[in-house]
């Protein structure tokens, strides 16, 4: 709730540049990319932008962070550019993260806290980006990946230690989220506030003469961005699929025999049992139940009479039954004949009374019978290993600055090229043709790259296949000639005229209502063919649509009683004139469920608020400083484009 009442950052980039309270490592590595790591603490070359206790946040560090965050952000929003990132507050956010991280680290050390090398190593090995083909930490993959980002092992470990220290300090703070009953009551009552009034839609209807050529040309020039084909990219790629390594994935007879021998217990003949079990906590009660069953009462009926529930297990092996009950119970049941009652015997919990319902024998499988499933499993395993070897070889070659043509030649792959595609994967030269879903990961990689970047490997699907993708060329955004776009231009210009006329009429009606004219009379005097309708809502309904704020309701709850305001209709059909006639305060004192829900909601928000305030206080106490001139120069450099490539 507090997050909706108080904004932390107002940014078009949204969560990408929002102050994340030092979760750079978790976010970057979970995305499979070693980005956002900082060597600010080492005071490397570069103009200092900020400092804490002699440790510096350098321009070179923030420059690289900005490039890396933009590259990661483009995987979700391919049309983002450095100017958008900078203007949305991205640089300030990066500096805040680095500065606060340094402050928390020095503060923790002053309190005697330390992050052990063992803990750093454990965190490092748990990062998915550094896993090899087996899913385990791969030292070579780790070194190769951090080298691509110009990092050293010491710098990475230092950053992980800093982030861990931040977690030590912030997690307990964020957990302090208890909300007093009276505070929750006030907020819960606020949500129950009810307002009523009237709303009238002033439709945007096209009127007047058709636009002249001069008006069309003027509109086209002033709104050229609307009629510009966005940046497109041509991406070269080569596919590696399980089918390409099929010959290497065929298991030999020896491998099949070895797999069969290794799983002999699985394929051997074995006895099976169908049993009905009842677990009783008290031994005397279990003895009474067993006596009743042995006297002829069905075990399920006897269990129900005792307030218990029997459960049945069918076609189970002795080892599986031992896991579910106890070894002693499983041994006794497999030694008993069909129809016999066993127990009570001590189980994992309480005492077990059981009946052997059926005795059967699994004949097992010969090698010939088991061969199909063994072949399928081995084929999948060998294909994954073969693809993994190809991928390792390709990534080693790319690390040595090989280009896509050289990689394709060495691995006997076919290089293909996409048309000039938009970030959505659509070819604007083929309107109406949907994007190829299979190319989506390749297109995303192409739009995340910059000219001159090393090709990259891109996972495809879930069968282990991947592509080697490289940005071939960038086609800059290009305006559509007016002759081709004329129909759209005329339609947009006509619609804009209609919207403006509707807005002017709405504003005139609002002025009359606020001067004392009833809404219906004001509409009639304006000559608009519409009528007012009653509207009523509670404050809680503002975000009822999956948390999305309803702008009309939000405006309604920001107005004084008896006043009117105009707002553009959410569906774009015109403008709404809204008048608030009645305000009924909410009272949640007799709704404990609403108060409790509000306490929980507030508690979630307060934890983050406390953590942020604590981090800010630590930064101030540690003497964190910023150098505005250096920050302004860095932003100027980035907006100039020399750092964005």
Measured by DSSP, the beta-strand proportion falls in: 15-25%
pLDDT < 50 runs, ≥5 residues: 1-46, 641-645
Number of domains: 4
Can you tell me the CATH architecture of the largest domain? Orthogonal Bundle
Helix content: 40-55%
Q: How many helical stretches? A: 24
Q: Main sheet, how many strands, which sense, barrel?
A: 4 strands, antiparallel
Radius of gyration (Å) = 35 Å
Task: Please describe the topology of this protein.
Elements: H1 2-5, H2 24-30, E1 48-52, E2 55-58, H3 59-73, H4 82-87, H5 90-110, H6 117-125, H7 139-148, H8 153-174, H9 181-191, E3 194-203, H10 213-222, E4 228-229, E5 232-240, H11 253-262, H12 264-267, E6 270-280, H13 283-294, H14 299-305, E7 311-316, H15 318-324, H16 327-335, E8 341-346, E9 351-362, H17 367-399, H18 404-411, E10 415-417, H19 440-448, E11 456-459, E12 466-475, E13 478-479, H20 482-514, H21 519-526, E14 533-538, H22 551-556, E15 564-568, E16 574-584, H23 592-621, E17 625-626, H24 628-640
Antiparallel strand pairs: 1-2, 1-17, 3-14, 3-16, 4-13, 5-10, 5-12, 6-7, 6-9, 8-9, 11-12, 15-16
Textual characterization of the structure:
The strands form five sheets. A four-stranded antiparallel β-sheet has the order 14-3-16-15. A four-stranded antiparallel β-sheet has the order 10-5-12-11, with helices on both faces. Strands 7-6-9-8 form a four-stranded antiparallel β-sheet. With 645 residues, the chain is an alpha+beta fold. It contains 24 helices and 17 strands. The chain has four domains: 212 residues, Triger factor/SurA peptide-binding fold (Orthogonal Bundle), CATH 1.10.4030; 140 residues, no CATH class; 127 residues; 95 residues, Chitinase A, domain 3.
């Amino acid at each position: 709730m507090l997050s909706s009442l108080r904004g932390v950052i107002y940014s078009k980039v949204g969560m990408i540049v929002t102050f994340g309270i030092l979760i750079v490592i978790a976010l970057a590595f979970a995305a499979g990319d070693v980005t956002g790591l900082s060597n600010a603490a080492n005071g490397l070359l570069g103009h200092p932008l900020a400092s804490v206790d002699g440790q510096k946040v350098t321009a070179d560090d923030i420059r690289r962070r900005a490039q890396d965050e933009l590259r990661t952000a483009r995987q979700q929003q391919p049309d983002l550019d450095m100017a958008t990132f900078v203007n949305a507050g991205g640089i300030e956010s990066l500096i805040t993260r680095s500065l606060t991280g340094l402050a928390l680290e020095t503060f923790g050390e002053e309190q005697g806290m330390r992050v052990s090398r063992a803990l750093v190593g454990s965190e490092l090995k748990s990062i998915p980006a550094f896993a090899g083909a087996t899913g385990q930490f791969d030292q070579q993959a780790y070194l190769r990946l951090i080298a691509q980002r110009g990092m050293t092992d010491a710098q990475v470990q230092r950053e992980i230690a800093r982030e861990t220290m931040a977690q030590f300090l912030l997690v307990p703070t964020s957990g302090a989220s208890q909300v007093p009953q009276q505070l929750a009551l006030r907020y819960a009552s606020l949500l129950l506030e009810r307002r009523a009034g009237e709303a009238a839609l002033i439709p945007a209807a096209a009127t007047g003469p058709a636009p002249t050529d001069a008006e069309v040309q003027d509109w086209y020039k002033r709104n050229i961005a609307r009629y510009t084909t966005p940046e497109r990219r041509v991406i070269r790629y080569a596919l590696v699929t399980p089918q390409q390594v099929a010959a290497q994935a065929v298991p030999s007879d020896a491998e099949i025999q070895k797999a069969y021998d290794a799983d002999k217990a699985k394929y051997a003949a074995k006895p099976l049992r169908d049993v009905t079990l009842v677990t009783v906590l008290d031994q005397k009660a279990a003895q009474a139940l067993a006596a009743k069953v042995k006297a002829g009462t069905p075990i399920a009926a006897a269990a129900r009479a005792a307030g218990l529930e029997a459960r049945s297990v069918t076609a189970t092996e002795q080892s599986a039954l031992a896991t579910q009950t106890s070894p002693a119970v499983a041994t006794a049941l497999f030694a008993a004949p069909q129809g016999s009652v066993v127990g009570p015997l001590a189980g994992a919990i309480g005492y077990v009374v059981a009946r052997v319902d059926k005795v059967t024998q699994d004949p097992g499988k010969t090698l010939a019978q088991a061969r199909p499933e063994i072949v399928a499993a081995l084929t999948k395993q060998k294909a994954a290993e073969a693809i993994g070897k190809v991928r390792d070889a390709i990534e080693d070659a790319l690390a040595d600055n090989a280009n896509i043509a050289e990689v394709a030649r060495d691995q006997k792959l076919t290089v293909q090229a996409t048309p000039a595609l938009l970030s959505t994967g659509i070819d604007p030269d083929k309107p109406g043709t949907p994007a190829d879903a299979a190319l989506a990961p390749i297109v995303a990689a192409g739009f995340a790259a910059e000219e001159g970047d090393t090709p990259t490997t891109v996972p495809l699907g879930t069968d282990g296949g991947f592509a080697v993708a490289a940005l071939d060329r960038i086609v800059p955004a290009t305006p559509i000639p007016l002759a081709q776009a004329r129909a759209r231009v005329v339609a947009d210009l006509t619609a804009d005229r209609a919207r403006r006329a509707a807005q002017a009429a709405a504003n005139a009606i609002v002025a009359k209502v606020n001067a004392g004219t009833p809404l219906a009379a004001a509409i009639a005097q304006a000559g608009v063919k519409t009528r007012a309708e009653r509207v009523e809502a509670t404050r809680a309904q503002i975000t009822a649509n999956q948390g999305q704020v309803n702008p009309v309701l939000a405006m309604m709850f920001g107005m004084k009683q008896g006043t009117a305001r105009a707002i553009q209709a959410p569906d774009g059909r015109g403008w709404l004139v809204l008048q608030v006639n009645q305000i009924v305060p909410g009272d949640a004192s007799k709704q404990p469920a609403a108060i409790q829900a509000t306490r929980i909601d507030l508690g979630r928000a307060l934890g983050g608020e406390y953590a942020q305030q604590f981090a800010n206080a630590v930064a101030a106490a540690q003497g964190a400083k910023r150098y505005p001139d250096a920050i302004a120069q860095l932003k100027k450099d980035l907006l100039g484009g020399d750092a964005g490539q």
